[in-house]
Amino acid sequence: MRRLTLLATGGTIASRATPRGRAVALRAADLLRDAAEVGLDPAVRVDARDLPAASSFALDVPGALDIVRAATDAARDSDGVVVTYGTDTTEELAFLLALFHDGPAPIVVTGAQRPADAPGRDGGRNLAAALAWAAAPQARDTGASVVFDGRAWPAIGVRKVDALGLAAFAAPGRGPLATIDETGVRTHIAAVRRPAPLLPSPPADLPRVDVAAIYLGCDAAALDAARAAGARGLVLAGTGAGNAPPAVVEAARALLADGVPVAVASRTGAGAVVGAYAGAGADLARAGAVFAGDLSPWQTRLLLATALAAGGDARGVAAQCRDWLAEAGATARP
Fold it and tell me: How many beta carbons lie within 10 A of that of residue 44, not counting itself?
């Protein structure tokens, strides 16, 4: 008998229409009944629990870390954990789980694109697939993952790639871990690279790290505002393979010189960053910026914040990030 824990946190999967807009209406037991209508393995026992319900777009970092703490605690006493959650920030919650979970039991995040009272709702199907993946022997030691529309995606590198479509998630350049359908669980990636956690357990909060979007004609105003707001680190969502205009590069170099770590990701949605162009990425790399490989700016932000929470000076924080990225396969090992 496989023992799973279901943690319900709200989101579209648990929402129904109201005169004021969609609102959470279903509890964990309701979600489990919807999944059972699709089909669950009778050899799997599911302990359904409710966590405080919140819309993922309104959740703050301490709230997300509370979910991470509940999921990692449950994983110590279960063969697998499934978390139902809103899709807007799924890629961030899943990444936080990957940063802090190092046990053998899989932790799986799922949700829905259509609410529980909508025609063609997908919540029950997604939850049934997530429970099947969490219970599968192949999922053991895969760490954190996201299951959606019959695919299991690694938490590291996962992105929401469609605002409304049912196939809402992908991990560009990495591919799915498995397919889950009427035939069962078919794995595509035999081993998952799982770096050791930077911290032994989730803290109550993380240091402030801001993301500055790079776009045609932008200046350094976002970097100046982040510093004035007390950001301890900064991520550039760079153009192409990690570039920025001269004013931004100069402001980023000034931050680095003052001991504020800067990381570089790409706004493109796929592919890795590299410091290649003079006056742009190459200058940032020489100044000591961390190039975050194929991570999204949003996952890069959480990595940098966690490394800052682990302590050390800017050089040490950058080294921790680079080592973690290499171990995760996000960057090439130097």
Answer: 16
